[in-house]
Amino acid sequence: MWNISSTARWLLLLLYFCVGFTVYGQQTVRYELYVKDTLVNFAGKEKRAIAVNGEIPMPTLTFTEGDTAEIIVHNLLNESISLHWHGVWLPNKEDGVPHLTQQPIAAGTTHTYQFPIMQNGTYWYHSHSGLQEQIGMYGSMVFNKRQSDTTFRKGIDDLPSVSVVLSEWTNMNPHTVDRLLHTGNDWFSIKKNTVQSYAEAIAAKRFKTKLTNEWKRMEAMDVSDVYYEQFLINGHAEQQLSQFKPGDKVRLRIANGGASSYFWLTYAGKKMTVVATDGNDVEPVAVDKLIIGVSESYDIVVEIPAANTAYELLATAEDRTGSASLFLGKGIKQLTSRLPRLQYFEGMKMMNDMMKMNGDMNDMGMDMSLQKMDMNAVMYPEQQKSAEHASSPDATDEHAGHTDPHQGHDHHQHRSGTSTGKVTLNYNMLRATHSTLLDSTAPVKALHFELTGNMNRYVWSMDNHVLSESDKIQIKKGEILRITLYNNSMMRHPMHLHGFDFRVLNENGDYSPMKNVLDIMPMETNVIEFAASRDGDWFFHCHILYHMMAGMNRVFKVGDYENPLLPNPDRSYKMLQRESNMWHFMADNDFATNGNDGSAMLQNARWSVGTEWRLGYNDMHGYEVETHVGRYIGKMQWLMPFVGFDWRYRRLGMDEHETNIFGQTNKKDDRGAFSLGVMYTLPLLINLQAEVYHDGIVRFALMREDIPISRRVRAGFMVNTDREYMVDLRYILHKNMGIRTHYDSDMGFGVGLALNY
Amino acid sequence: MQQVHANDFFTFYFVYIMKLSAYIGIVAIMLLSHTTFAQIRNSKLVTVDINGNCGMCKSNIEKAGNKENEAAVIWNSKNGKASITFDGTKTNEDAILKRIALSGYDNERYLAPDEAYSALHDCCQYERSKKTEDTATADAEHTPEHKHEGRKIASNATDENHAAHSPASGLGKLITPYLEVKNALVEANKEEAVMAAKELSEALQALNSKKLPSIETAIWNTESKHLNQTLQAFQAAKSMDQQRQEFAKISSSFYKLLKADKASGALYYQFCPMYNDGKGAYWISEKSAIENPYYGSEMLSCGKTVDTL
């Protein structure tokens, strides 16, 4: 008896092992993922994060081409989740976009993803629900190439490989991050020291640059939006792989799982050889430096040159506020140079030249594409330094790029070969290992998208429409989709297509590389194409999490797919649209010695419902409330028509009345009035507000808030035709708090504590 | 009345001032004690090796490592040891040494990026101990053992080369007294320097009458005259500083002569870019290793070899 039960136990154990571990060969490989809340301390404070099987990043999932993946997701959170398999070709219902390809995986439930592995290379996976990707839901996926594969590359595919997931951490709740971005709070610039205030401009002898910048209605420029306390490689600020010996070559499978950070990669052991991108093999190309966009993947081969030394692979955030390191080898650590802080006023000057008065970008005839010309290079101090030493070919190269774009092209098109100059990777240097030509007989559908947006209200869109304003784009199955993208916004965008790889048309013609993420810099025009061979609803969006949540998305509806997981696709699509155009609430109040000044606002991409109040402490100072409901018009959203309701009560004394500059007298102390009006943003970011009330009284006002005087000091003013005026000065203590002093024509001088949410 | 009043006032004023100064004194003491004692809490002390060579290195290293209320680095240029005091709750040895390496200085745990090292001032470009390269080709040139041997051979050769230069014919006779002047300056010995200069001066006079076939007459005439004048000034110099000023001129003339003589031997023409408010100054040495005559022990290893004669 005992014997039998023991055998049974062994069998059970064996079964358990078979299930729990990967099994090679063309078989089903199963992973069980338990998604759970956790507390982490990445940057000095305990904060909430989401871990899968107790890990951040999520565990690396390994398959071999030909396997069938079965991934069982247990949602142990109190909120719904989803998992998207980034870059993977699969049936639409396995794609993991809630409301588009499946229902969200509800709290406490389990969902199974199952799909055949049809590719090989480096991929990754992440949550596609809300902002979960920011707090830990990202992980690496490796699809091994079969040894018998005809494309098996000796010396590359047989190297030891390591998955490297880059990410970033903020101690702030990501929903607060999102709200701060939408409410124009510049707390992140204060943290990053990139306010670019007037005082700093004057100190840098850039007053005119700053003035021109504001004249063109631009706020402080930056290459990224969010301040992060920590950058991470595989969940660590610093990691060491000491198993490698001198002379070893290592393939690093690097995926950028950051929510909004691009990373520069540099290596202390000299050149890195790029061998694949987004899971697709490319001809090896040796570079000194490469930028990995949000959600891109690059496979690089590096060598450990000497013994007793660990060489640093440095991933520096594009805004250079921080970095993370991976040391390869054992022994004393050989560091690589840090990238110095950006010279923002140089960037501002460049932007001034590139920005037209109407908010369009002007590339000055440079035909920019494929990352060949990095305009941000004007801000790189290391480039300026090396330019002084005219000997550095890199510097001359970059400079040629600026003054004569065509020459710049030629320089950059040189493939790796130059041993003297420093080589920076760009998309034109990527060449597929086999012809990627599409079927020439298939019908071609050409689409054109202009990437649009504005920083002032943090609205990001395509052709000036957010997802909630766009229908699905119908594509016939088998059609070739040729998409021209033009970035007419001030930020770069990593555009990601679900379910397909696309060709990035470059000088390699038939051998143009395949990717599924395209980084597109401001003013660039790029063309991508792919055969829409799998039916279903495929998401196409900017992979900067906060841009995606702001509505920079489209859906390609290929063929007529019936998704068994979505019984009511139309209703689900409405949910998706709603989730990418959420309302943001903001409020502030100044508790001052002479009264309370404050406002509350609810806004989405287009609409604004706002109330402002000025409440005195006595009847003579009065009480005033203005409410406006308006809609922002145009790409730059400088115009907002609105309807309003004003109410005020005050007692000025016997027969004392105010007269406005048009001679109109307002006789009532207790007045309620409806109005129609417009708000328009003038150069220098001054708002002009014009309104006419139902009783015929007209009012014009000029106002500006948040004039950056110094890093933490903001000034503001208001003047109107009721002969009222106000000036204020505020010192920002905290993202939600400041000390404000103001003078108001009604209420006099006041000092107070200004709180904002 | 009035006077009494005034007196009262002054008395009061005096007492007041005394009190005030007492307060100020107490506050000052408190502040001082704060800065001296309370600066780094939870302090830990470690001693580590950091490469570097001169006074400028010292300030670079300390500046890179120091952080208010967190870490204080004191680096000794003689033995390359740094004592680091730091607040163990705020930082660690690694972070401090990393900062120091990023500013260009190799240390126990981190090697500086090449760019950071080459961006250092010439005088700070200490001898780097190269990584043990694995590839055979690099081995020969880069391993530290080889380098050291190389230097030894060179300095041995120098002694022989003294002989090579010194045959009764010509400039060779000036070399030994010149090097004595230089070494006296390295040791900061003013008297010895004067004696050596006198010797050099006499040797120069003795040469004057003889023919130096290998040197163009024009060069000989200008430089030997110049050399003679500066040597007189050197001997008359009242301070070591003045001696060094003259020595810079002597060295430059002597170098021109040696260069014109075309006689080859292991002499090193070396340069300290810091001397004379950054104008720099040269000297000739029998050793490739730097022993700076312009600062003495203060900054003995500031400099680099720019030419070999």
UniProtKB/TrEMBL annotation, chain A:
What sequence ranges are listed for the domain Plastocyanin-like? Answer: 36-147, 185-317, 442-559
Tell me where on the tree of life, at the top rank, the source sits.
Answer: Bacteria
Query: Where does the secretion signal sit in this chain?
Result: none
Record field: compositional bias (Basic and acidic residues): 396-410
Instruction: Give the span(s) annotated as Disordered.
Output: 382-421
Query: What GO molecular function terms would the record report?
Result: copper ion binding; oxidoreductase activity
- Show the InterPro entries listed in the entry: Cu-oxidase-like_N (IPR011707), Cu-oxidase_2nd (IPR001117), Cu-oxidase_C (IPR011706), Cu-oxidase_fam (IPR045087), Cu_oxidase_CS (IPR033138), Cu_oxidase_Cu_BS (IPR002355), Cupredoxin (IPR008972), CuRO_2_CopA (IPR034282)
Q: Which PROSITE patterns match?
A: MULTICOPPER_OXIDASE1 (PS00079), MULTICOPPER_OXIDASE2 (PS00080)
Instruction: Write down the SUPFAM superfamilies for this protein, in alphabetical order.
Output: Cupredoxins (SSF49503)
> Which UniProt keywords are given for this protein, alphabetically ordered?
Copper, Metal-binding, Oxidoreductase
Q: What is this protein called?
A: Multicopper oxidase type 3
TrEMBL record, chain B:
Q: Where are the transmembrane segments?
A: 12-32
Q: Which domain of life is it from?
A: Bacteria
Domain DUF3347 residue range list: 175-262
Gene Ontology molecular function, alphabetical = metal ion binding
One Pfam short name: DUF3347
Task: List UniProt keywords, sorted A-Z.
Answer: Membrane, Transmembrane, Transmembrane helix
Spell out the protein name for this chain. Answer: DUF3347 domain-containing protein
Q: Which organism is it from?
A: Sphingobacterium deserti
